[in-house]
Amino acid sequence: MNTSSGVGRRALGMVGGAAWLASVEVLRNMHDANAAARTFQPLDIAVERVSDIERRASISYVAGSAQHKLRVFDAIRDFEQRGLPAVALPCFESHLFIDELQQNTTLAIVDMVAALFAHIRQRYPLARRVGVLTSPVLCERGLFERYGERACLEVVSTGLTSVDGLREACDALIGQGVDVLLPGSSDSALSLRRLGAQAVPIVDSLSVYAQHLLFADHRKPAHQIRLGVVGGVGPAATVDFMHKVVRNTPAARDQDHIKVIVEQNPQIPDRTDHLTGEGADPTLALYATCKKLEDGGADLIAIPCNTAHAFIGPIEARLRVPIINMMNVTADYLRTTFPAVDRIGLLATDGTIASGVYRTALEARGMTQVLPPRAMQARVMNAIYGARGVKAGFTSGDCADDIIAAVQSLLLQQVEVILLACTELPLLFPQAATVTREGRSAHLVDPTDVLARCCVEFARGTLPGTPASARHEAAPVEYAAYARCKEGNAAFNAELL
Questions:
Q1: Summary mean pLDDT of the chain
Q2: Element (H, E) at 30
Q3: Residue 162 vs residue 152, higher pLDDT
Q4: How many CA atoms lie less than 13 Å away from 13 in the CB half-sphere?
Q5: Which of 24, 234, 355, 486 gives the lowest tally of CB atoms within 10 Å of its CB?
Q6: Which residues are within 8 A (CB) of 285 and not within 5 positions of it... i.e. 6 or more apart?
Q7: In Å, what is the CA distance from 386 to each residue of 109, 352, 416?
Q8: Are 241 and 448 in contact (CB under 8 A)?
């Protein structure tokens, strides 16, 4: 039910389910409190649509069961897709797994039980013991005892199978010395008027929750950054990138790793073919893939394909999330790791070279790219695209011979650092960090690994910069902080011949 859509409105979704009568009462209390307030707030409240059949089925769900969790999560996910900022959960049983729900949504789930205990602490500051009228399941699971411990309040709960014994349950709790009575089930909260005055105060749970929904500040929880990966450009390079993301993440268990969404789309037209005038434009396919990642909740996007970065300008301008620019973070890494080096050897596709993406990034930091001679560049292309090249699944034989020859040609030009600037090339050098030939040595730098490290640090919040939740002011993203990044693998000489 949408009562207004004005600016500054109070917007939220409400999950009813088995507690649909409680939802109706919460809504009524919200409207009454809003009408009585000095400053009226426009309300935009979406209520979960539940048919009579679904409502009867939901009542049969075991509280906290897998079916119960999934039904509530689906409702929350629907609100999330509709762009609502917060969710009301007027179902006490759903609070058995509220932490699980919160971990898997970007919305703020307004905790009813926490709001009730906060109300008791504020309204009854001398209260030390709370008597809770709840269901047998919640009584057995100790839900209110956990909340009471956080609020430094002792909880005595009793499980009611029906409202018929409500008055006797109140008397029993009062006899145990409670200072406040708290209805902790939909039935007991809706039956409050039956009780009349008691020897201790009774909290109107649904009214208190309505006030909290109406006037409290509902902030989104701390958000775990999600990395989106444009995959399939090429497929083996995507697997290699993901391996480097995992390898570069400090983790002692599965849950310590970052969240990653991969859209594997090998049908994106070849980037080099288009840049050399021989193939279809990949811009739209790249953009569509990025939008799928953005719609899926990615906070930043990585494209483990050097040549694809020639197309990201117009793409990033239409995205709400940034693309981490592989050229810029690699050039930052080179400048800070090799401050005395100004000539960088480049092993890349014809398309990457033609686009000038590395030349621009390097020159902006006082460095110059050095290319293999034309004949050697043809061998680089053969190593990548040839019938026995890396894209065809080979990592030894002709492709390795071709790249070795190209590396030798760069060493003869006295370069000290060589960029493996095609994401397939690191597959030919899985361990090497330096190469040596006839007394000449050069460091091998893998932009895929640099990109993976940057994404991990960004997602874990350890890299200085603008938060991923906000639109980055400048594109592409640059990180001078990459001075901390080292190559990771122990350096050893790869004797080429």
A1: 85
A2: helix 20-36
A3: 152
A4: 23
A5: 486
A6: 265, 267, 268, 269
A7: 54, 17, 28
A8: yes
Residues in Cβ contact with 374 at an 8 Å cutoff, skipping those fewer than 6 apart: none
Q: pLDDT by residue (tens digit) across 3-53?
A: 433 345 789 999 977 688 899 999 999 999 988 887 778 888 988 865 554
pLDDT of residue 198: 87
At 466 the pLDDT is 35
Distance CA 33, CA 273 (A): 65
Alpha-carbon distance of 440 to 437, in angstroms, equals 5
Give me the mean pLDDT over the 296-314 stretch.
93
Write out the catalytic residue numbers.
305, 422
Opening angle at CA 248, ends 245 and 252, nearest 5:
105
Query: How many CA atoms lie within 13 Å of 358's alpha carbon, on the beta-carbon side?
Result: 28
The CATH class that applies to domain 226-495 reads alpha beta
Classify 10-215 by CATH class. alpha beta
Domain boundaries, the chain: 10-215, 226-495
Strand partners, 437: 440
**What's the Cα-to-Cα distance from 128 to each of 73, 124, 177, 180, rounded to whole Å?**
35, 9, 10, 9
